[in-house]
Every structure is written in C-alpha cells, then in structure tokens.
## 1
Amino acid sequence: MEQWPGSATIIAVRSQGTRDGRPVDETRYYVTSLRTSAKALLRQVRNRWSIENSWHWVRDVALREDAHRYREANGVQIVAMLRTMAINSLRLNGIWSVTEGIAALAHDIKGLLMLLGWRKPATAQPSG
C-alpha cells in the first residue's frame, strides 16, 4: 500500500475462457481508492471492460483509428464523428459486429442508404 498512497484496495480478477479458439486463463490486478464491497468492485471492472470491448477496441482494431495520421484538428474531429455515426448506425440496425457490417455494406450503396434511413424522394405530380 505504501507504493500507492491513497489506495484502499488491491484486487485480482481472474478471467477464464477462449480467445481465437485457444483457452485463456488470466489474472488482472487493480488498485483503487474506492472503499466498497467486492461485488461493487467487480461491477466497476466489468463496466470498464464493457466500454473497452464495445467501443475502444472497435475504433482501434476494426476501424484502424490509431493507424490514421490526420494533421488538421477539424479533420480529426470530422473523421472521428463519422466513425461514431457509422458504429451507431450499424448497432441501431442490429449489426453489432462492425467488421461484418462493413463487409456487408462496403459495395452495397442501396443497403448503406437504407441503413442510414434514406428513402427515395417522392416524385412531383404534374398539376393540372
């Protein structure tokens, strides 16, 4: 505890499962200043990883956000907003795998426009 002044708890969370078809058994350690129950701490850890897996990982891996090297501040903000809109549009339409959604819609302009809520405009009737 003397290495982390102000810390209240050091916890270890063991995760078991499979990743890429291989068994995984990992222990992650957390240091926190929260003074609460073990269940509440586990809920905090799960919430943190839920955000990481559903949002940050998608942006970093599926959309390769970290690989882009934009120079202008406006360009960075605009492209980040477009990525956010793409992720949200896919998820609002029940497509949770961004990679699969991109693959399905990459060459389907009508499908993409439908996903975004675009409808063919009504044609004007001649008055007469």
## 2
Amino acid sequence: MKQGTAKRSIYGVHPGVAMTIKWIGELKQKTGRTLEEWMKFIKKEGPPTEETRRAWLKEQHGLGTNSAWWLAERSAGKGEEMGDPDAYLETAEQYVEKMFAGKKEHLRPLYDALLKLGLKTGKDVKACPCQTIVPLYRNHVFAQIKPTTQTRIDFGLALGDIRKTPKRLIDTGGLAKKDRITHRFEITSLKDIDDEVKQWLKTAYDRDS
C-alpha cells in the first residue's frame, strides 16, 4: 500500500481513502491482526463467499459491521483502491469512463460542462468519483453529478431547508432522509446549464463554508 503524494489528476482523492488508511494503520491494535494477517486468515479459515465471510467475522470473531464488511470485501479482491491515493485516482477515471459508456456516452459533454462549472466554484472544490455518481466536496459534499437515465443527468445540490426555489429545482426529499443532497436540476442539454443553475450551485457552495 502506497501512501505517497497522489499523481496529478482533474479529480481529488476521496475522503474515504484517508479514513481507510487510518483504519488499516489501527487494525493490529484494535483487532490483534494486521490487514495482511487478516487476509491470510480469512482465505485459509473463512467461508468461501464475501457475504458469508462478513457474517463469520462478526459472529465468530466479534468484529463490528464496518470492519467485517471491509475485511470481507478486501478478501474478495475489492476495495483496494480505497487504501491508496494513486490507485483511487486511476479507478476514479475508470468509474467516469464506465458511467458514460454505451447508451449514456452522449451525456459526457453535459458531465464535462457540469464538472468544469463545479470545479470553478472555488479553489477548495474537489470532485471525487464513485461508481455511479461524482460528488463535489468543499468541507462536505455540496453538489453531485449523476447520470440517472439515458437522457438525463441529475445535478444535485445540498441546500438544506431552503424553501423558496424555482419550479425546476426539484426537492429530492433528502432533508427528511438526512441526505446531504436535498434538491436537483434535471440536465438534458447544455442550455439547461444556465445562470440559474450557476446561482444555486454557488448557494450550495457558500452554505458549506
């Protein structure tokens, strides 16, 4: 696992990477085994599937849900990029390529425009792709880009309990669900990315100061 400076990329390293590196560093102290020792043990003594390994780690070895989930996932060859900044950035590029492949390929110009707009909002903004969405962070997620259908990108914003919004700014129900993203614009063409979208993006950014 490398912990050096991540390579240059338009994307930023997801906050979860630092959390995972910290978790790996504390694993021996908290559980009695290092990550490498757990991997060897699980593959030698554990059940065959990721799902059964999670239950086995919780029930037989007293691990918490998160630790059991992460170890089972790693034992199945998944999630390694979350412990390595450079590996994450390489994977992030792949996430975006897959997100806009096939029947969603024509949405890529809309994504590129939204990403550029989001990154220009402030010098402290970073985009950290996941498998199905690209969240934009300041201190927290304040916006997200999601190719929801083959014809539409949902541009989500964290606006809290703001009530006076234009009709096209749709309430996601996120506030009631305690989600960060509470509203969204439906983007189907470049002309949808207008001054109104820019204004509300800036509002979401300013709220996360």
